[in-house]
């Protein structure tokens, strides 16, 4: 439909009292979506995984906008969300971490606008909430970490002392979900594995993450699990500098320090975004509900660094994955219900 024809259609419908909303008019020309962020791309993690999903949709014809913002400017986050909502030109607006209060204020003011809220939940009829079973993916990370920390022969950077650590951004329920799954996986694989937990107090302070990782290693940890968003790049570097092992998070971070990063726990954010866009386009998106992505539906996973993880450990991780996916293993969660 050409622009002039589209305008004539809107005017003729308006004269008949059947004016298209800006969203409906836009949808006839091109499907349009925007991601309102509370930080930036380039984290080699959460946001870059999200961008992958948007890029897949873009390749199939969707118009995509990724609206970045300073992580230290929450006022701008709210302004950006209000601006795109007021514009009325997006078929669906995506937003995610740190945006709960903003979306709770803005979404009810725009009942015709559709939103997808990922990695969190908001009960509104025009919001589709998407969460991830990070406890399940972390169960696999804990399994691998315990195996590496107890087997010096197969993992030569390990002391064999059965000590691992989680270095996490902040003490939040979602982060506790990572920790609970990791601890359970470690204990299931190698009973008696000691797990240190250290909080940075930030998801953006890579230097502090680096320093605290060195502390964890000086306390005996042979494997450190990164649960810290952009700050986690400091965790991985510290492990490499100390010649110990690390496990990445959100995106595949194995190639950042390939001699030290054993694996990465993937939150398949890009998959969920791509799926959600397809559902919105087809009219099947279950707005007003919560969708969980876990091991069973490829919402989370563990991608191994085959160059440093032997086949024997891979087999044990695969066994753990199968147990969770089949339901024979139930992974503890920091949330009351999944």
TrEMBL record:
Kindly indicate whether the keyword Lipoprotein belongs to this entry. yes
Q: Which Gene3D superfamilies match?
A: 3.40.50.2300
Main localisation: membrane
Q: Under which name does UniProt file this protein?
A: BMP family ABC transporter substrate-binding protein
Location in or out of the cell: Cell membrane
What species does this protein belong to?
Mesorhizobium liriopis
- Matches recorded under InterPro entries: BMP_lipoprotein, Peripla_BP_I, PnrA-like, TAT_signal
Q: Which domain of life is it from?
A: Bacteria
* UniProt membrane topology term: Lipid-anchor
Parts forming coiled coils: none
Q: Which family does it belong to?
A: Belongs to the BMP lipoprotein family.
Signal sequence span is 1-27
Is Cell membrane one of the keywords?
Answer: yes
* Residue ranges of every copy of the ABC transporter substrate-binding protein PnrA-like domain listed in the record: 35-319
Q: Which UniProt keyword terms apply here?
A: Cell membrane, Lipoprotein, Membrane, Signal
């Amino acid at each position: 439909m050409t622009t002039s024809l589209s305008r004539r259609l809107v005017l003729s419908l308006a004269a008949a009292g059947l004016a298209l909303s800006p969203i409906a008019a836009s949808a006839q020309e091109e499907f349009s979506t925007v991601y309102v962020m509370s930080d930036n791309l380039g984290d080699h993690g959460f946001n870059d995984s999200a961008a992958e999903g948007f890029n897949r949709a873009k390749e199939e014809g969707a118009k995509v906008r990724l609206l970045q913002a300073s992580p230290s400017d929450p006022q701008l986050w709210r302004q950006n969300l209000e601006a795109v909502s007021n514009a009325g030109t997006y078929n669906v607006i995506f937003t995610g971490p740190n945006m709960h209060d903003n979306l709770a204020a803005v979404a009810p003011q725009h009942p015709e606008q559709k939103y997808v809220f990922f990695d969190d939940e908001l009960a509104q009829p025009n919001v589709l909430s998407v969460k991830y079973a990070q406890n399940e993916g972390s169960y696999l990370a804990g399994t691998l970490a315990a195996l590496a920390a107890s087997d010096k022969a197969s993992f030569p950077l390990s002391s064999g002392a059965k000590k691992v650590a989680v270095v996490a951004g902040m003490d939040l329920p979602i982060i506790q979900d990572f920790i609970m799954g990791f601890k359970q996986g470690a204990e299931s694989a190698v009973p008696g594995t000691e797990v240190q937990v250290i909080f940075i107090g930030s998801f953006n302070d890579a230097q502090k993450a680096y320093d605290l990782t060195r502390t964890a290693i000086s306390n005996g940890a042979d494997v450190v699990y990164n649960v810290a968003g952009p700050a986690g790049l400091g965790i991985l570097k510290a492990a490499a500098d100390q010649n110990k092992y690390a496990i990445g998070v959100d995106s595949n971070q194995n190639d950042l320090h390939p001699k030290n990063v054993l694996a990465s726990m993937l939150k398949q954010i890009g998959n969920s975004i791509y799926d959600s866009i397809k559902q919105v386009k087809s009219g099947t998106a279950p707005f007003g509900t919560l969708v969980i992505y876990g091991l069973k539906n490829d919402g989370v996973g563990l991608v191994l660094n085959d160059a440093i993880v032997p086949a024997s450990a891979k087999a044990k991780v695969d066994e753990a994955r199968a147990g969770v996916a089949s339901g024979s293993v139930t992974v503890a969660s920091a949330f009351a219900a999944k």
